C-alpha cells in the first residue's frame, strides 16, 4: 500500500453509507425503483425484507407495500430473480441482463449438470427428456402468464415425476422434477418469481417468464455490475467484492482494472487499516450528513449485508445477538452509521427495540430511534412480520 493512497477513515465510510444508501431523512427516495437503484440489489430470500428495506428509505407516507407491489407485479420495473451467490434478490429491470451474464451463467451451468447427474443416479429419465419437459413447461407458463408449480403440473404432468436424491446418504431425499427444474430455470434466467399466493409477506410465489433481455458478454457484465456496486458501496476491499459477487478473485481483479478503480486505504473498524477501492474519481472526501440519523433496518437488509468486513459499522461483540448460526443478520437498530441494537415486532403489532452497546447512545439518539420505531409501526399497520432467519435478540424481544 503506497503512501500516496488516500486514507478513508471509519467516519467517512459511515457518511458514504448514510448518503448513498438513502438512510438520512433528507436522502429518502420517492419510489421503490429509486431505492433499488441506490442499493443495486435488495435481498429477496425473505419476502418481507424487500418491502421493509424500501420502506426505511422511502419518503412516501403511504408506505412501501402498494408502490413496491406495483413495481414488482404491474410495471415490472423491479424483478425478483437469482443473482449473486446463487441467492434471490430484487433488481431494477434494466440490470437483469447484467446480473444474468455476470453471475447467473456459471451457476446455471453447474446447476443443470448437477440436476442431470442426480436424475441419472436415481434412474430417472435422461437430459433429452428433461429438455422436452422444460420446453413444455415454459410454453405452458407463456399461456398462463403466471402459475404455481402445481398449476404448471396440471398442464405438464411430467413435472410431478419424483426421484430419490443422494440415495443411501444421511441427507437422502425425494425431489419432484418441478422443484428442481423451476429453480434451475430461475438460475438460468428463463423464469422469475411472480406475485405471491398470499400477502406481501408470503414466501409462496407464482412463476412467470423472465422479461426479455439482450445477451451480454460475461466479462462486460461483470465490469458493469462491479462498477455500479462500488459506486454505492465504495470503498470496499477485494475480499468484500469477492464475497458480495461470489466471483473468482481473478474476475474481481479483472473488473477492477477494467473500470479503472482507484486504490485507497481504509479503516477496517477495529484498529487495522486495509487496502480498498473506489470507482475512478471517487477518492475525494465526503462530508458527514448535516443531521445525525437513526434507522430500523430489516433482517438481511442490503446495507447490513453489504460488506464481508463489517467491523467499521458493527462491533464484533454485537454479532452473537444479531446473527443466526448461518451468518444471516436479523433486524438492526442504527445510529449515525453504526449498528447499535436490534428490534422485533410483537404479536400485538408493537415495535420493540433494545440498544446493545454497553455505553448506550444517549437520550437524543434514543428519541430518534423511538421515532423511527413509531414510523415503522405506522407503516406496518395490521401486518405482522417474523423474519425467516431468526436471531437471539429478535426472538427474545418478540416474546
Query: Distance between the terminal alpha carbons, to the nearest Å?
Result: 49 Å
Uncertain runs are none
Task: Give a count of the beta strands, DSSP E runs of length 2 or more.
Answer: 15
Backbone structural class? alpha+beta
**Shape label:** globular
Order of helices and strands: EHHEHHEEHHEHEEHEEHHHEEEHEEEHH
Number of domains: 2
DSSP helix fraction: 40-55%
How big a fraction of the residues is strand?
15-25%
Q: Rg, please?
A: 22 Å
Mean pLDDT: 94
Note the topology.
Elements: E1 7-8, H1 10-20, H2 32-39, E2 42-43, H3 47-55, H4 64-74, E3 78-82, E4 88-92, H5 96-121, H6 127-144, E5 146-147, H7 149-155, E6 162-165, E7 173-176, H8 177-187, E8 191-196, E9 205-209, H9 218-233, H10 238-245, H11 249-258, E10 262-267, E11 273-278, E12 294-297, H12 319-322, E13 332-335, E14 338-345, E15 351-355, H13 363-380, H14 392-398
Parallel strand pairs: 1-10
Antiparallel strand pairs: 2-4, 3-4, 5-9, 6-7, 8-9, 10-11, 12-13, 13-14, 14-15
Helix pairs in contact: 5-8, 5-9, 9-11
Organism: Streptomyces griseoruber
Pfam families: AlkZ-like
Protein name: Winged helix DNA-binding domain-containing protein
Task: Describe the protein's architecture and organization.
- This is Winged helix DNA-binding domain-containing protein.
- Pfam families: AlkZ-like (PF06224).
- The structure is a single chain.
- This protein is an alpha+beta fold.
- Helix content is 41%, strand content 17%.
- It has 2 domains: 1-42 and 238-399, no CATH class; 94-209, no CATH class.
- It has 14 helices and 15 strands.
- The mean pLDDT is 94.
Amino acid at each position: 500500500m503506497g503512501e500516496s493512497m488516500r486514507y478513508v477513515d471509519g467516519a467517512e465510510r459511515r457518511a458514504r453509507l448514510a448518503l448513498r444508501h438513502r438512510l438520512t431523512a433528507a436522502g429518502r427516495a420517492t419510489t421503490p425503483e429509486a431505492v433499488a437503484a441506490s442499493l443495486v440489489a435488495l435481498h429477496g430470500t425473505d419476502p418481507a425484507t424487500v418491502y421493509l428495506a424500501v420502506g426505511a428509505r422511502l419518503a412516501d407516507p403511504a408506505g412501501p407495500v402498494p408502490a413496491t407491489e406495483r413495481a414488482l407485479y404491474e410495471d415490472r420495473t423491479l424483478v425478483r430473480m437469482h443473482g449473486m451467490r446463487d441467492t434471490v434478490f430484487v433488481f431494477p429491470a434494466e440490470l437483469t441482463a447484467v446480473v444474468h451474464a455476470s453471475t447467473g451463467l456459471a451457476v446455471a451451468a453447474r446447476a443443470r449438470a448437477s440436476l442431470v447427474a442426480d436424475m441419472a443416479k436415481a434412474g430417472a429419465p435422461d437430459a433429452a427428456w428433461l429438455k422436452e419437459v422444460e420446453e413444455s413447461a415454459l410454453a405452458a407458463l407463456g399461456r398462463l402468464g403466471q402459475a404455481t408449480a402445481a398449476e404448471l403440473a396440471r398442464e405438464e404432468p411430467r413435472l410431478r415425476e419424483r426421484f430419490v436424491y443422494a440415495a443411501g446418504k444421511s441427507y437422502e431425499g425425494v425431489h419432484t422434477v418441478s422443484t428442481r427444474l423451476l429453480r434451475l430455470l430461475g438460475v438460468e434466467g428463463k423464469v422469475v418469481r411472480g406475485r405471491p399466493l398470499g400477502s406481501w409477506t408470503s414466501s409462496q410465489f407464482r412463476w412467470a417468464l423472465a422479461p426479455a433481455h439482450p445477451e451480454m458478454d460475461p466479462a462486460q457484465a461483470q465490469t458493469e455490475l462491479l462498477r455500479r456496486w462500488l459506486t454505492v458501496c465504495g470503498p470496499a476491499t477485494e475480499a468484500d467484492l469477492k464475497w458480495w459477487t461470489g466471483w473468482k478473485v481473478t474476475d474481481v481483479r479483472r473488473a477492477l482494472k477494467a473500470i479503472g478503480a482507484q486504490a485507497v486505504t481504509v479503516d477496517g473498524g477495529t484498529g487495522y487499516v486495509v487496502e480498498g477501492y473506489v470507482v475512478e474519481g471517487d477518492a475525494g472526501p465526503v462530508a458527514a450528513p448535516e443531521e445525525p440519523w437513526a434507522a430500523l433496518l430489516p433482517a438481511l437488509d442490503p446495507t447490513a449485508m453489504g460488506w464481508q468486513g463489517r467491523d467499521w459499522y458493527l462491533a464484533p461483540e454485537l454479532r452473537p445477538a444479531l446473527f443466526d448460526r448461518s451468518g444471516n443478520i436479523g433486524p438492526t437498530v442504527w445510529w449515525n452509521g453504526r449498528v447499535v441494537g436490534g428490534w422485533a415486532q410483537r404479536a400485538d403489532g408493537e415495535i420493540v427495540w433494545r440498544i446493545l452497546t454497553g455505553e448506550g447512545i444517549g437520550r437524543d439518539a434514543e428519541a430518534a430511534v423511538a421515532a423511527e420505531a413509531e414510523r415503522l409501526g405506522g407503516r406496518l399497520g395490521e401486518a405482522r412480520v417474523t423474519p425467516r432467519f431468526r436471531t437471539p435478540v429478535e426472538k427474545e424481544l418478540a416474546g
